[in-house]
Amino acid sequence: DAKTTQPPSMDCAEGRAANLPCNHSTISGNEYVYWYRQIHSQGPQYIIHGLKNNETNEMASLIITEDRKSSTLILPHATLRDTAVYYCIVRVVGFKTIFGAGTRLFVKA
Amino acid sequence: DGGITQSPKYLFRKEGQNVTLSCEQNLNHDAMYWYRQDPGQGLRLIYYSQIVNDFQKGDIAEGYSVSREKKESFPLTVTSAQKNPTAFYLCASTDGRSGANVLTFGAGSRLTVL
Known about the structure:
Mean pLDDT of chain B: 92
Low-confidence stretches of chain A: none
Shape of chain B: globular
Order of helices and strands of chain A: EEEEEEEEEEE
Distance between the termini of chain B: 36 Å
Strand content of chain B: over 45%
Radius of gyration of chain A: 13 Å
Low-confidence stretches of chain B: none
Number of strands of chain A: 11
Mean pLDDT of chain A: 91
Number of strands of chain B: 11
Strand content of chain A: over 45%
Oligomer: heterodimer
Helix content of chain A: under 10%
Radius of gyration of chain B: 13 Å
Number of helices of chain A: 0
Largest interface: A-B, 21 and 28 residues
Largest sheet of chain B: 7 strands, mixed
C-alpha cells in the first residue's frame, strides 16, 4: 500500500537532465519524501530526501511542490550508469519503509 | 568503510531444506530489516528489528524466521514452510535516532530452489 504514484518507465538522453515525477497526494505533514535507486541485481542506494524545502546533493536535486502533493527528482546530467529503477517513498510507518514499483529509467546514448 | 555485508551472494537449495542468510553491519545502527524482491517487482518487508533481542513481522513473514542476538547481526532463515522461496533477499539498516529514516542496504543474496 505505497502512498506514491510513479510512471513505470522513462527514457532520457545521455547528458540531458532526467526529471522523475512522483505523486504523493495523501502525504502527512510529518512525512518525508525519500528517493532510492536500484541498479540491476544490486541493493537499493539512497539518493536524497526532503520534508518541505527543495534539496540538493552531489547526486541529485529534489523539488517538492508547495502543497507537498508531488515531487520531482532531477539528475542534472544523466549518464548511462544512471539507468536504474528509481523509488519514491513517503510511507514510513514507525520503522517500516514501504516500497512501490518505482520508475525504470533508461538513459540512452 | 562502514556498511552491510550479506552472504552468501548466491545460494542454491533443494526443496525441504532450511537455509540461513547472513547479514552483518558495522554502522552501529539500531534497526535492521529483511526485504524480499521478486523479478520485476518492488521490495516487500519480511521482518525488522529495532533493538537487540526484539523483532517484528513485516508483510510477508510466513515461512521465515530471524534472530537478533547482537546489534551487528540479523540472520534470516528461510524454512521449508516457505512455499516459493526463490527470490533476491536484501538486508538493510537505519540509524533510527534521527528524524529521517534513511536505509542502507547490503548487496543482496540470491536464493534459488532447485
